[in-house]
Every structure is written in structure tokens, then in C-alpha cells.
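User: I've been going back and forth on whether these two constructs are worth ordering. Before I decide, could you fold them both?

Assistant: Sure. I'll take them in the order you sent them. The first construct and its C-alpha cells:
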Amino acid sequence: MSPGLAETALKHNFVGLHKLITNLKPPGQRTGQISRGDVASTKQDNQGRVPAGVPGLDLQALSPSERLEAIARRLEEIAATMADTDYLELLWRGVKMCAEKCEKETSDWVWRNLSLFAYRVATSDPATYSYDEAIQVHRLAIEEVPEANTYTRLSDLLQARGDTEEAYEATTQAMTQESTDPDVLTELGRQHHNAKNWGASLEAFEKAYSLDPNNDGALNNMIYLRKRVCKWESMDALEQRLATRTHAAQKAYFDGGDEVEGVRNGQVNAHPWVFLYLPFSAYLKRRTAEMYNTVLSQNSAVLSPSIHSHAASVAKQIQKLRKEYAQGGGFKRRLRVGFVSSDFRRKATSYLCHRLFEHFDREVLEVFIYATYPDEKGGSEWVKVIREGAEHYVDLHTMPAEKMVERMRKDKPDILLDMDGYANEGERANTLSIARIAPIQIMYFVYMGTLGSKYIDYIITDNVATPPHLALAHTEKLLVMPSTFFPNSMPTMMPLNTPDPRPRHISQNWEGLPAGRFVLCSFNKHLKIDPGLFQVWLNVLVRVPTAVLWLLRFPAQSEDALREIANQRQYGLSSRIFFSNFVDSWQENFRRLKLADLVLDTTVYGAHTGAVDVLWAGVPLLTCMGSYCGDTLDDHQSVPEEAATFNFDHMATRVASSMLVAANLSQDLVVHNMEDYFNQAVRLASDQPYYDHVHTQVKAARTEAGAVWDGRQYARRFTHSLQLAWENLLSGEPPRHIYADKENLLLE
């Protein structure tokens, strides 16, 4: 066949080959998305392994045809090791043709498909074909054919390698090429989100969704960001659509149906962390977590297979322990307990629990701290206290996931506690939720929902945060502590006799608050505020003319939207809403909380760290707990009978109630429906003698409610709960719901 005829034949197959490569899905890989596990693999490449590539070859120094041949030769070698890639022969023929001479259209086709195949290989097996090499191929392809999809894939690869700024630039370049591609717009939205450009991020997701209403990634992120900036128009309808499509995705994923194309291949756009903030049933949130975790586990089996290699040794460890226990050997040594977190730094986790570890009895527990993220502030005071309080502090942050697991297994822990979950928008290593590393693995304290993982045996909670009827919301068994499960370090951080450097009237002026008014306050981020709740707050302002509402600019972009909604409720009402900037100083934040008269909790996702601050400041906190604190948007026809009574009520809504019940303050500050919430807020804001009575009780509870504020008492209750779980394992029983206030140890 003559070269001209060969090129003509090649052109007839342009579209078909591109579709075949696009649909190439290595086992467990999420099409078009790079998972957290991929990032770990890239770090491993950068920790001393030589990236895969053409050794010693500088592609930039070669002529265009030589570059093309070198890249193709490398990729052809990899393709030879893969199954069902015979169709790529067409691509190799195109390379040989263009290495000599071909038309621009053919050359563009070759570069487009070479870079696409490089992306597919790198995202499925970065150990064989590194991100660095795939990035280089994409840069060269862009020199030849600067198309939006190539820029988008380059952005994805750069993001996985950790180059956020370069990824954003690549996405911006994609936008200049083609601003009507939903996938490009979705990627742009992600990049703006990473840069905390909420408005620009939302605009990109909204445009992507308008172009493709079946783009679940755009829908999911659009709803999340609209809530974040309080853009609530049509929110109910959007949330209902997301719930319906997520139910369909779950059916397709778990039951093998085909309701949502691509779901079986792992295109899961519903993130369990985002879903905690949405008014969906606890059942839907659980199934979302299960689906998400299944994908994480599948990815890890491909990208980090050695993580899963420890299950057999853990099983032998358990078998040996049980045999010794059954033979009457008891359990003579200390319990080896590890706490795994990326937040042993200047984060809320360390703020709350840094004093916990020094209260553990070293004759009973041997405590290991595993830090998976650097303390970027340079050794904060909290980390110093944690290091001193724990017997072992192990810094894992420079290690890829496989090495983290190996290092933890070296210590042979009996119990490991995951203090990350899917928190912080899911940017965590998630090693405990995807592999068996210790005989018992527990979710603790930070992520207020189920992980949906077969590897997490228990979640630590209490009877208020997770009553028995909510057990079905978790795949984990409940490890129920006596009194509140939520820790804090407030008595040592901010002793009650700490003087306030500024008098109250000066602080009020500082914050712009008017004197002589009753200050209703919520310092929760606006993502936690829903439209119905905000209307209740406005109704309280209307009923109590002397009241004002004090919020944070959290974020600042939502201030105008909230003021406009207030004026729609009553003209001029926005003048009674005051905003203060978020401050990165816990001391300053704590001091200004004392200016509030009553703090109003949110409902779908309540106050956690903020609740600790409010109660220790001696300020009343009003919360709503239970099924009637809001409306659940869900596709009830898709919910099985045993979960039909579920609504949005779940652990994340109940943390403040947990603390208030433990402090004996629930009679006046915990209500069970929104009508009572409104009435109680009005009463506290307008009945001064009643308010003074409640305020006195809250302040007194700081010294009288040891169940909330006594760190040593908390550590004893916590230890007892762990011992019960350990004893259950030694006795040969599978994990079960354990109520620590009702059971005694047999080993004592």
C-alpha cells in the first residue's frame, strides 16, 4: 500500500481508536479521576526510585520525529505487557508514518492518542510509567496540538504529583482552548476549589452542569459550593436530584444494574464527607461511604498492593493471642494502642486532644502516635505536648502509604485508631479503612460518620451521639463510652481564672457589635447553615426586636447572600446581622465568644469543636436533636424496609447534645423539633431572669461536670472501652456493639 493510501486508511480509524483508548480501564482505576492512592504512589517515585522512562534520554534535545519514536517505543513496550491492546497497532503504524512525513491532521491524531495512552498507563500503574514521564509527553503533545482535553489531563497529572499551581495554570489554558467542554469546566472547578476561589469554582461547576445535567461530579460539587456560599436557589430540587441519582448509582454498583453508565467502573462522584452536610438519610450516607470505600480498596489493590499483604500476619497474631487466652494465660502485658492522624499539627484535632495522651495509665496502655502529615507550623505547642504525653511519636509523613503501613506493623499494635476518616474534604491517606493492619481498628472522634469499610471494626461514640436506633447508619459496631465521647483540653489551655485583656464594652466596639443588645451567635461555617434554619433565626430576630445575630465571614463570599435573604424576610432586617472575620487564633476566638449571649447550633451538621469553645466560655448553646429538626430529602422508594424510618439525624448532628447531656444542661438547651427551637431561643432572648438562671448553670458546669471537662476521668473511660473491645476479641467473638457503662472487664 502506498504511503498516501496508508494514511487515508489510517484516517478512517481516527475516532474509533480514540474511543478504545478512552475506554481503556485498568482494574480498579477510576476513569478520569486520580485517587488519593495515586498520590501516595507518586510520592514513592519521588522518594528515591528512578522514574520509569527512557534512561538518559533528553526528549527536548531530539527532533520532533525522534521524540515521537522514542515515546512510542517506550509505550509500545508497556502495551506489550497488557491484555487486549492489539488495537494499538494502528497507533504504532501512525507513529512510523509521521516519523517520516505525514499530514498535520494525522500528526495531531498521533500525538493526541499517544498522550492519552500515556495518561491511562500512568494513572493505572505509576510504578511502571511515572507521572513525570506522562507529564513530559503531555507537554510535548501540547506543543504540537494544544487542545483542551490534553491540558485537562496534564492538569490531572500535575495535581496528582502535588503541583497545584501548575495544575491550575494547565486548566486555565484548557479553558482558553475550549470553554464549553463539561469535563474541562469540572476540572477548572476543582482547581479553583483547591485554591479556595469559591466563587470561581462554583461558576465553573454550574456551567459544566448546565451543559451536561448527567455530570454527577459537577452536580455534587455545585451543591456543595452553593451551600458553602449560601446560594440556595432551587437547592431542594438539586439535592433531590443528587439523592435520586446516587441511589441509582448505588444500585448499579452493588447490584450489578446499569442505571448509571460507568458506575461499575468506579466513577463514583458522591463523596461521603460532602454528604454529611446534606439533608439525606443516614442510610444513603452509609451506602455512599460503602461505595466510596469499595473504590478506594480496589484502587489500592492495584496501586499499593503491599498494603494488603499484612492481613495474614494479623490473622496469625489474633490466633496466637486467642490460644494463649483460652489456655488460661490471661493477658499479662500492656495493650499497644496506636493513634493515626494527619492532624497532629495546628488543627482542631490537636487543639482538642493534645492533653489526652498524658492522662493514659502507662501501666495499662503503651501509646503510639503516628503522624502522617508534617507539622508545617514548625512544632506547635500542641504537638510538643502530644510528643511528651505519648510514649512513642512516629513521624510517617515522608513515607508513601505502603511504607507507612510497614512501619506501623513493625510495632505490632493491638489496636489502631483512625483519627482522619474522610475528613478535610477527603484528603487523607485512608490506610486503615482499606487494609487490615491491626487486630482491632477503630474510627475515633474526627470524622462523624461511617467509613463504610470492612476493615474498621468499631466507631467510638456514646448513647446520645449514636443511640441504638442509629446503629444501622454505621458499618462499624458501636463502642459506646459512658458519658460524652468528645474529648477536649480546655481546662489546661484556658484556665477559668484567665483574665480578659479587654473589657467587654471595648471588645464589643472592636467587633462592631451594638451595646445593650441580646447577641445571638453562630460561629459555624456557613456550609452548615441550611435555608430553613436561617429562616428560623430570622424569625427570632423579628420576634425579639432587641436581638442581633452575629456570624463569621466563613466564608466572606456568603455575606451578601445572607443579607439579601434577611431583607426579603423583613425590610432592613440585615442591619441587625453582624459579621466578623475568621481569626486564626484560638485565644482571640475564645475571648470574643464571651460577647455572645446565646449560641445557636446548626442542625444537619452541628457544632463540634465550636461547642467545646462555647460551653467552656460559659455561654449557653441551644441545639436541636432528633428526627424532627429538619426535613430529609431522599428517594424513599429506594430505601430498604429496615431503613425506611431513617432521616438526616445522625452522629454529626448530635455532638453538642452529647456534651450538653453529659453536663446536665439538656433540660434547657436541647430541644427535639424546630418549633421548640424557635420558642426556646425567643424565651432565652426575652426572659432575662430565665436566661440568667440558664447562664449561671452553664458557667457552673465548667467545674461541676467532670464527665465533660475532666481529662483524667475521660482517659479512664476511654481505656475501659478499649479493654472491653480487646477482651471481646480474645474471647473469640467477632466485633459487636459494646456499651462500656454496662459491662465489666473479666481480665481484672
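The second construct, handled the same way:
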Amino acid sequence: MADSEQQEENLKKLIVRLQNVEQGSEVKTLLQILDDLILLTTVRNASILFGNKNIHMPLLVVLESFTEIASIQQAGWSLLCKLMELCPSIINKLTTPQDMGKDWDVLGVHQQILKLLLIYKCHPTILLLSLKVLTILVQSDEISLLLRDDEMDVFSLVLDGMKRLADHCGIQIYGCQVLSALLGKVPDEQMIEFVEEKDHWVILEAITKFSEHEDLVLHGLRALLPLASPQNNVEVLMSGNEKCYSLVTDAMKRFPDNEAIHETGCCLLQRFTLDNFYNILLLHGAPEVVINAVLKYPQNGTLQAAALSSLALLTETIFVNKHLEERKDDLCWTEACCRALETFKGNAKVQEAACWALYNLLLYQNDLHTKFEDEEACYPVHRLVMTAMLLHSNSKQVFQAAANALATLVNKSVQIRRLLLAKGIHINILDLMKKHSNSCDVLESACKFLNKLFIGSNLKWDIMKLTSCRIIDTLKNTLHNSSVQLEALRVMLHIICPEDMLDAEEDTDKLEAIKKAIGKQCLSDGFHGLVLEALNK
């Protein structure tokens, strides 16, 4: 207790001394004040001790007043860095100063850190420190905006420092961290310009030079991730000169136990995959590292979504390449899809990715559906996918992925078709069609699924009536979308030609009654006019 009181008293005295420092003060005295304050940041209760103390403001005044003295800058910024680590709320106080009046325009922390980068660009210790401080400051959206809008270009200053001291691993690490944070907050146009000016080469060279350094590789890949968002950039990053895919796959192979590297790597490969570079990725082993990651880190939702999304798009390329014929079984990620659907029921992105991955596996593995049954030894895929669709009923993307997966599955398995009908999934589909009646993608996927589901099925009159009403509404709402019109008309064939859906013992009178009722319903809803309009297109 006595120690805490003494530390509190010492801190108050040091703050008073710091507040009364004048520009002509002796450097040695000021350094001693700063060193004593830094020492206090190492005590056990430092976060409590420094909480609610106004040290940052007089410290910024001192840093502004002694810009040309390296020892003061090093000690002062070290202290500010430690204060922000101990009390993160200080960052918010730096953006909303109190009682500073006009001085704040001069003392803005964003201006001071940029000036530090400019003046000490050849000073390894201070440059490293300034980049470390920046990694903390850019956590604030407000300070990030001030940095980007300042006359001194923060990107140029950071890149210049990284180029000048390219052999300094720490500077490359913090530089990549700053770039990652800042690039994630700029518009696509600025990221495209960044790549067009070949500024990204600084990141690539850092990863290549320090390829054995785990932290640098991680932060380098994270800096590349936002740059891989615009399609123009992806084309450059995947070009022969850049070969970013090799950097990513090599990093994932070199550090098999680093989950963060695998997560970032999978996210990068997903963005590369979205731009149709399937063959290049296949030839350079992307599917292998993605499959290894999805199997090794089943609890990482971000990784699972990115990896399964990539595999969904790469499936066709994998299975049509003859030289991979013997490895098809090794490249099957069915179990990973099922586990992801089960583990991340509340994560829409994972559910969507897993459904698309299953859809593509079903397309290219003819016997895969035999593993999807209700028996104990099989995967209950139909139940998992149906759950995804219903649990994320507000997501058009999940519905589209789930509907396509189920349509492919019921087309191959009569047993699952009967199971889903028994569970009343068609009622759910019709409800979701009404909910997303403005989405052509949802309506087309829904109609495709219903068409497959109703094959050989015995529908009750009320279901036929409900279906016809919903399909006619769909036809009316999608007059200019021929693909939706086609799928909707196919569903109507099951309604207006019900012979195949009746049991053999049904009497002729009942069949005729149903036909008349259906005809009357269709006429009253204007179905004949919709058919004629479709035929005239």
C-alpha cells in the first residue's frame, strides 16, 4: 500500500515537472523525467496508476518543442507507446483534446508522427519506434483519416522507410502492419493506384527476404489481403512477375502450425480463385494447402468460409485434370463441409461456402450421394443444408447455395427426395420465394429445386394449389428474365400434368376433378396469358 502511494506521489510530481518544461530546458533533465516516467510504466499496477492521468498532452507539447533532438524523441515516443498500451483509451483522447485551443492544430499526434517519419527516416531505432506507434494509432478510424488526408503522404513515408532499411526485419514487420491497417480503410481506387505504382513490391520483397520469419510473413500477407480486393489488382498479383500465389502457398507450407498464416493465406487464395485463375492455382498446389488448412483448423470460421469457397470453385478443375485422377480421393473435402455446417450454424458465410462446396462435389463425384443418408454410417447432409437454409432465411446467398446443393442431391437420390418431401421442405421453399420475391437468383434456384423435388411425387391438392399460385406470381414478377421463366414453367408442368403424381388406385373421377380444379385456378390467375407471352419471346 505504501509503495502504491509513493508511486502515485512520484507520478504526480513528474507530471508537474513535465508540464513546466520550457523549450530552453536542459536536455539531460528532460530525459531524466521521461526515463522516470517510463520506469513507472513497468510497475505491477501501472494501468491503474496511469489511468485518468493527463500525461499525453504535455508529452506531445514536449515532443513538438524538441523535434530535432533524437534522444528526446526516442524517449518521448517510447513513453507514449507504453501509455497507449497500458491505457488504450488514451488513443481516443488524442483525437479529442480538451482546452488546447488553437495549439491543437500544431500538436496533432498525426502530424507529429508523420514529421518524425520524415526527419528520422534514416535513423533505425526512431524509425522502428515511429512505425510501432503508428500501428497503435491507426486503430483509431479518426486518426487514420487524419493521416491519410494530411499533406505529408503517410504511405510514401512508410514505404520510403521500408525501402531505406530493407534489411531491418523489425521495420519491415511494423511497416507491413501499418500498411495493412491503412489499406483496409481506403477506397478501391487508391488500392488500384497503389499496385499500379508498384508500391506493393515493397511488401513482396519483404516477404521474400524474410521468408523464414513467421511474424513478418504473417503481416506481409495481411498487407496484401486488402490489395487483392479489386479485380484489376488480382490480375497483376497473379501475373508472371508477381506470382503472389507462390508466396502464399509457400508460406502455408513453411509454417503448417501457424493458424493466422493459414487463415490469411486462405482468404488471399479465395480472392485469387474468384477471378478464374483455376489452372494456375491448381498447378502450384493451392488446393492441397487449402485442404490441409480446412482439415487442420476446423474451429476457425473465417478460414473455413474462405477455404470452402475456394474449393467450391476449384472442384471442376481438380476433377477434370487427368493427371490428378489418382488423387481424387485425397482431395475430397466432404467431411470438412459437413463439419463446418454443423459447427458454424450461425455463420452465414460458412454455411454458404459449405453448401456451394457440397454442390460442386455432388456434380463431379457421381457416387457421393450414396454417403448422404439418415443411417448412422452416413452424413445427414440433407438435414444440415436444410437447416442452413431455414436458419438463415434472410440471406439470399445462403438460400441460393443451399437450394442448388439440395436440387443436385434429390436429383440423384430418390430416398432423400422422399425424406425432404415428408419433412415439408417444399412449403418452406414456397414461403421463402414469397419472402425474396424481388430476387431473380433466389426464384430461379427455388424453381430448379422444386422441379427436381416434384419428380415422381404424389402431391396433395392444397400443395398443388399453393405451388401454382406462387409460381404464377413468380412468372408475373420476372417477365424479363427468361431463365427464371423457364424454371418456373417446368415446375408448373408438375402441377398441370398430375398423372404421374397420383397413386395407381386413384379413380378417374378424382383425377378429372383435380384437372378441372387446376385448370380453373390457372385460368383465374392468368396463367395462359403468361405462357403465351413467354412463347412470344
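Notes on the second construct follow. Residues 301-320 form the longest helix (20 residues). DSSP finds 32 helices and no strands in the chain.
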